[in-house]
Amino acid sequence: MAGKFEYSLGINELKSKDYRLWQSLVGEFLGNLILNFFACGACTQPEDGTFKALAFGLGVFMAITVVGHLSGGHVNPAVTLGMLVAGRVSLLRAILYIIFQCLGSIAGTAAIRVFILNNIKCIYQKLLTFCFLFHQTLIDEVYYNGLGHTSLAPNITELQGVGIEFFLGLVLVLTVFGACDANKPGSVENYLLSHRSHVEILPKYLDSRYIAPLAIGMAVTLGHLGTIRYTGASMNPARTVGTAFATNNWDSHWVYWVGPVLGGIAAALIYTQILEKPAAKVSEVSDKYGTHADEREMRKLESGRDYA
Q: Family, per the entry (predicted)?
């Protein structure tokens, strides 16, 4: 059965501390700052696309691991809008997430650009004039390498770019939904149903909280390996906002919003309407608990007879 969507404006989240809205916004800010600082920093180094793909994948893994428990670890407007369409977040939270994601990306990329200035005196002078983001002299323009700013290859049209970024956003958000689906086989809840007596194994099993960030990070790495040469493999509009702001290059910028966002929305609809496993009903859960308990008791009785 297709999932049912429940939407909320989220005005009540501003008033109640239970929703931890402001902490979540700080989490999204920090997540994008971490991603752009390290991943875009890697792009200043004269390495090949594989190196950059691993940098972005590991950056996403680290960012989600750090802030995932706080905000859900969206770290990407395409993911946030996918969650909004699926009814997983309120409208207000989605809008604020996107704003703070972009601010975090700008801060992370700006920090990298400031740190590779020629000298500290130059930093001080640029800060005083509030134009350090656009006019500083860098150590080496070749080494600087555009801070990893995403741009279309000469033979790629904007429409082709949208198509590539669409599929990148689609795969990424499908991975997010799949990795975070509590109802699929292998989730903690399903483990409890089938291994209720093996409590001592549960802490090891709970390490699956690291599997979701790893899976999402690997999806980002895969996207970069496949398409970094053609569009820069943004997959993340906020990440491109950060580098566009720091380099003052807004050419074809709309491509990096329209493509991933449409892909994320399509992924949300596909997963929730087709791929998502329905949540087990309370009666079904009770039956499973009872069935497993009866099976264990029968095994105990049978083993007792063997030694009688």
A: Belongs to the MIP/aquaporin (TC 1.A.8) family.
CA distance 22 to 27: 9
Q: What is the architecture of the domain spanning 18-128+146-196+205-303?
A: Up-down Bundle (1.20)
- pTM as predicted: 0.79
Q: How far apart are CA 246 and CA 107, in angstroms?
A: 9
pLDDT tens digit string along 195-226? 444 444 444 444 456 788 999 999 999 999 99
Query: Where does residue 130 fall: left (phi above 0), alpha (psi -120 to 50 degrees), or beta otherwise?
Result: left
First to last CA, the chain: 51
Task: Confirm if 196 and 148 have CB atoms less than 8 A apart.
Answer: no
Q: Rounded to whole angstroms, how far apart are CA atoms 297 and 280?
A: 24
Nearest-CA neighbor of 60 among 231, 233, 204, 252?
A: 233
Domain boundaries, the chain: 18-128+146-196+205-303
d(CA 100, CA 111) in angstroms, rounded, equals 16
